[in-house]
Amino acid sequence: MNRAAELYREIDALIGALRHEGDVQTGAWANDIVRGGFAESAGNLAAYGALRRRDLRALQRSLMPLGLSSLGRLEGRVFPTLLAVRAALAALAGFTPEKGPSPEIFFAGERRLAERTQEVLGEAATSRPTAILVTCPSDAADDPSFMLALAERRVEALRINCAHDGHARWKRMIGHARAAEATTGHRFRILMDLAGPKIRTGEVRHPHKHKRIGKGALLAIVPPGGLGRIRVDERHFAAECTLSDALDTVKVGDRIYVDDGKLGAIVERADTWGRLARVVSAPAKGVRLKPEKGLNFPDTHLNIAALSAKDLVDLDFVATHADGIGFSFVQSAADVAMLQEALAERRPDDWDRLALILKIETSEAVRNLPGILVRAAGRQPTAIMIARGDLAVEIGFGRMAEMQEEILWIGEAADIPVIWATQVLENLVKKGTPSRGEMTDAAMAARAECVMLNKGPYLFDAIDELHTLLGRMRQNQHKKTPKLRRLGSW
Q1: How far is CA 388 from the centre of its chain?
Q2: DSSP secondary structure letters along 345-394
């Protein structure tokens, strides 16, 4: 038997296994797929998940010398790619000719992804297919020229962070945005991020004359108002956790990170008054322990509601005024269902027209991502935001680059747009001069459907730079596929 015949049988067996496993998975998702047209995407996602549970590196290498696809770019078209390879192998092996998929079927996933991107983010600028999302500063409520400048630059979407300002200022921001639309003819999509349950340090206590906490020190974490109940040496550092429920399930051996991971500790003792942890990672000079700094518990299942009381109040405004909603603490399909039910109460007739932006910022959200996507996109327009700041702390900085790739892949497999977020061109936005590393990062963001910029004094310079960069990169790269345009550099 020649090698092509062997590979034909291997691919044929793989197709059969993926069909079976994919059917089982889509059957489990059936109740969540209500929206017309998403069944095909869910089927491809299920097949992709089954495929990626296998190690196919040997098969890939065997296909390459035959001039066939190595299966490395099949995210949006699992079965069409496998069927095309099988048809080519049949011809090489001298078997009965097989008809491969038509170009329309082969590229159907790309078409669905483009349609859903436009649904969430609006139509992208022709010279820059990747959309830009801009975070609105508080000053935008009182400065109509800010929105006008964004509209003139054809920025597709505006992000209003509900953790800041309030209903009155949000309303003025949106009013300025609509006025800018009327002046320029450019339509914005307004996305409003729910604040979510914020886990922060509250009141802190330092040992006498010690301002910085470093490696080897002990840190007590207590509920609000609990500093006086600590039953350990008062020379230890201590901090309140603003969300007391977050501490209830923290166990001995669990990690705790403070201030975006600047300080890492491992819990050594669990008591009724709180938790005592030993610092295992910190800068050489230590860290100033301050209130209002983020707390992360990457090893702990946090049994807290994804929607806070504030979120439910803000949702009354958001459901009326926004085009889409950023979901900040989504960790499961049940969390998505909770938000969708709350939206249906506020907009019973058309809540499913609102876009849902899933902010993936915890390790649990990563584990549950396929089910989260199907519950969301099976009922309303959906996008994924890679919240790289919180996610890096949760899964470790060493895994962040790998994980952002995986989220890009799973978004493409589900035909769902991805937003590349957190500190894009941060130096340029804040200081007016980009670093070399962040320019490379921004170039890599061209593989996403949208890039988010945060607020800063040089925001407009960053938009202009990003507009040019994304336009150039899209001539060279689409997702994982290089484009072989004619080069004139050498």
Answers
A1: 7
A2: HH-TTTGGGSEEEEEE-SHHHHHTHHHHHHHHHTTS-EEEEEEHHHHHHH
Both tokens of 19, joined, read: 């069909």
User: pTM to 2 decimals?
Assistant: 0.90
Residue 414 CA to residue 448 CA, distance in Å, equals 14
Rounded to an integer, what distance in angstroms lies between the CA atom of residue 387 and that of residue 421?
A: 6
The structure tokens listed for 68 are 């066939």
Distance CA 47, CA 428 (A): 41
> The tokens of 436 are what?
């070399």
With a CB cutoff of 8 Å and minimum separation 6, the contacts of 277 are 218, 219, 220, 221, 256, 265, 266, 267, 268
Which helix H or strand E contains 478, and what residues bound it? strand 477-478
Which domains are present in the chain?
A: 3-106 (no CATH), 112-197+305-482 (3.20.20.60), 201-296 (2.40.33.10)
pLDDT per residue, tens digit, the chain (490 aa), is: 589 999 999 999 999 999 999 999 999 999 999 998 899 999 999 999 999 999 999 999 999 999 999 999 999 999 999 999 999 999 999 999 999 999 999 999 999 999 999 999 988 766 778 999 999 999 999 999 999 999 999 999 999 999 898 999 999 999 999 999 999 999 999 999 999 888 899 999 888 777 789 999 999 999 998 888 887 766 789 999 988 888 888 999 999 999 888 999 999 999 889 999 999 999 999 899 999 998 989 888 888 888 999 999 999 999 999 999 999 889 999 999 999 999 999 999 999 999 999 999 888 899 999 999 999 999 999 999 988 878 888 888 878 888 999 999 999 999 999 999 878 899 999 999 888 888 888 888 889 999 999 999 999 999 999 998 888 887 777 787 777 677 777 7
Strand partners, 158: 134, 190
Q: Which helix (H) or strand (E) holds 398?
A: helix 397-413
